[in-house]
Design a protein that fits this description.
Blueprint (H helix, E strand, L loop, with lengths): L3 H8 L5 E7 L4 E12 L14 E5 L18 E13 H7 L7 E6 L3 H15 L7 E12 L3 H15 L5 E7 L2 E7 L2 E6 L2 E4 L2 E6 L7 H10 L1 H21 L5 E9 L3 E11 L4 H7 L8 E2 L1 H11 L10 E7 L5 E6 L4 E5 L3 E10 L5 H18 L20 H7 L6 H4 L14 E6 L4 H11 L3 E6 L5 H4 L8 E4 L12 H15 L4 E4 L1 H9 L4 E17 L2 E13 L5 E2 L2 E2 L1 E5 L4 E7 L2 E4 L11 H13 L1
Parallel strand pairs: 19-20, 19-21, 21-22, 22-29
Antiparallel strand pairs: 1-2, 1-7, 2-4, 3-4, 3-15, 5-6, 6-14, 6-18, 7-8, 8-17, 9-10, 9-16, 10-13, 11-13, 12-13, 15-16, 17-18, 23-24, 25-26, 27-28, 28-29
Helix pairs in contact: 3-9, 6-12, 14-15
């Protein structure tokens, strides 16, 4: 017989606040019954007490806490504080849950295929094509109305997901007054336990074919597909920026792995590192996954607000389970709210899905991807027929797949793939570095790398840096590293770009060492008299072997604008240029106390990134 607590919920599901959670790797589901409170800030989430956890429903609009753009809606930051908890075996739970069909009416997409395809085209042309970022996730919703009790509907759909889905990280139903969630999400966003942080970026989607004979050739092609591979590398880079902010060792990458579900399979990496930060700070710093927003994160939120007409509700937010460990500390487990239905008290049902848009996205294919991602949840809701594939294949065991996956790491930076023991350069030990953040937290990875060389970095946002800070007055920095960011480096109407020009110019006039990366390299190039233009096709998330003054380095590139070759000088002093001839692009500059690089030495795509960065730092400080 089911435990009494489950009986109580089933007897009056709409009259109580509860959650039923089944987490990957556990033999039993967790049942929580208790009280609800709505909060303003993540810092207000209460501590778990007396062995009872705390479950927070975090909507996307909460990202405003980071100062990022978000369309506001009425979705609350809501916390369930259990007064009673229990566990139940999976078979017992499935047997107890309701299974009568739930009537749904008026099912439709919030944005029809043609309109969504046009939006995809605009994002590629107007955002990625104008240097606003490497990739962006734009969602659309399936909308319907539930005629019956939405609490009973949530339990019914939970049963369907438990029976029909596989490979989910969490399968869950949460009911609170006016808002309920039910879903099977494949993706952990962030976990914290015993001072260790894990993130789990997933990207790349393979839809299982109906014909078993097509599985092996199509999946082998998927694993080797350049677009799918680059999408995953881009989100790994973005989450590594977060890891560099919260982890003392910057984070380490393991994988890639496969996440095989009932109808879809994804590729994923696991990131981990050590941190002593409070779990709420970890949660705030990592809002939200680039797999559901894009990169760079801050500008991705602006692009989402520009192209999505309504707020996201809980889609792409997280459920956050806080528990007390044996030492009295706190643990955190937070899956991303995707493949999830959001039921409101008025009977409306929303299932959201998004596609990751990159420079070579096909609008028609991206439409199909959003439909495929929503399919499992829609089938559980009775809005789509369940796909009975009639076969079961472990895709990871297919011939050659393990080797093909492992081969992806051959091109990645060993620095981020292995434990990072410090390798200080005696000539750099203790040197102070001001790292200017131009609205892209690549600067956190750069700071970690120069710290690894024995230097002492300080990261500050561009608007908080004054001319006296770079002119050598007050606190003296041995080096100012001007970082990457989105946008047109020649647009002096943009306050951020104008400030970069001012700060770089002030530092140069003071005759003090400068290192510039990506956007700031382009700013430096334009100040040196070089033409800066747009590439016909952006380099977003690609590895390019470039010759930097006699040494070939494989470097990750994320750029739409490039400097073109020509005579270059600053303050009457000539600069040497490193030119990548296939792109007719200046990929590096150097002169007296000046060095720059177009690519991202800090990227996981930069196999030779540490070597290149070390050489540039030494040159600037020579």
């Amino acid at each position: 017989m089911p435990p009494r607590l489950l009986d109580e919920i089933l007897a009056d599901p709409a009259g109580q606040a509860w959650a039923v959670l089944w987490r990957d790797g556990q033999d039993e589901a967790e049942i929580l019954l208790g009280d609800v409170v709505d909060l303003d800030l993540l810092s207000q989430i209460p501590r778990p007490r007396g062995g009872a956890p705390v479950l927070a429903m975090v909507p996307f609009r909460q990202i405003a806490e980071r100062g990022f753009d978000a369309r506001q809606d009425d979705t609350p930051l809501r916390v369930l504080q259990p007064t009673r908890t229990a566990r139940v075996g999976l078979d017992e739970l499935v047997a107890a849950l309701p299974q009568d069909p739930v009537e749904l009416t008026g099912e439709h997409f919030s944005v029809e295929d043609d309109d969504y395809a046009r939006t995809v085209g605009r994002v590629i042309e107007e955002e990625i094509g104008e240097g606003e970022g490497a990739n962006f996730v734009i969602r659309r919703d399936v909308l319907a109305r539930c005629a019956g009790d939405h609490a009973v509907a949530a339990l019914t759909w939970l049963r369907s997901l438990l029976v029909d889905e596989r490979g989910a990280y969490w399968t869950f139903a949460v009911h609170t007054p006016g808002h309920a969630l039910v879903g099977a999400t494949p993706e952990r966003h962030v976990s914290v336990r015993d001072g260790r942080v894990w993130m789990n970026p997933i990207s790349g989607t393979f839809r299982h074919p109906a014909d078993e004979a097509e599985v092996e050739p199509e999946f082998r092609a998927f694993v080797k597909d350049t677009k799918e591979t680059e999408e995953l590398f881009m989100v790994v880079d973005e989450e590594m920026k977060m890891m560099a902010q919260i982890c003392s060792d910057g984070g380490r990458i393991t994988g890639p792995y496969l996440k095989q579900m009932a109808h879809l399979t994804h590729t994923e990496y696991l990131l981990d590192g050590r941190s002593d930060a409070d779990v709420r700070d970890v949660l705030r710093t990592t809002m939200f996954a680039p797999t559901v927003t894009g990169s760079p994160m801050e500008n991705a939120c602006t692009v989402i607000a520009r192209h999505e007409e309504t707020g996201r509700g809980y889609y792409s937010g997280v459920l956050a389970l806080l528990e007390e460990d044996d030492e009295g500390g706190e643990t955190l487990d937070a899956p991303i709210l995707i493949r999830t239905a959001h039921l409101r008290g008025d009977g409306s049902v929303t299932v959201s899905a998004g596609a990751t848009l990159v420079r070579h996205s096909d609008p028609v294919s991206e439409c199909a991807e959003t439909s495929a991602k929503a399919r499992g949840v829609l089938a559980a809701l009775g809005l789509r027929p369940r796909r009975d594939l009639g076969y079961a294949v472990d895709l990871g065991s297919l011939p050659g797949v393990a080797d093909d996956l492992a081969a992806r790491n051959d091109s990645l930076a060993p620095f981020w793939l292995s434990p990072q023991g410090a390798r200080p350069d005696p000539d750099l030990l203790g040197r102070r570095v001001l790292v200017v953040d131009a609205e892209d937290t690549w600067t956190q990875m750069l700071a970690h790398m120069v710290r690894h060389l024995g230097m002492v970095p300080e990261v500050r946002r561009w608007e908080t840096v004054g001319v006296t800070d770079v002119a050598g007055e007050g606190v003296r920095h041995d080096l100012v590293l001007f970082g990457p960011g989105p946008g047109d480096p020649t647009d002096l109407e943009d306050p951020r770009i104008a400030r970069l020009h001012e700060l770089v110019g002030t530092r140069l006039e003071a005759g003090l060492p400068v290192l510039a990366v990506c956007l700031s390299h382009q700013v430096l190039a334009s100040m040196a008299g070089l033409a800066v233009t747009k590439l016909p096709t952006p380099n977003q998330g690609v590895q390019i072997p470039v010759d930097l003054w006699g040494e070939v380095h494989r470097i990750g590139f994320y750029n739409t604008f490039v400097a073109r070759p020509g005579p270059a000088e600053l303050l009457g002093r000539p600069l040497e240029t490193a030119v990548h001839e296939p792109d007719d692009a200046v990929v590096g500059l150097r002169g007296e106390r000046v060095a720059s690089i177009q690519g991202h030495a800090e990227s996981v795509l930069s196999r030779d990134g540490m070597r290149a960065l070390h050489a540039l730092v030494r040159h600037a400080l020579a």
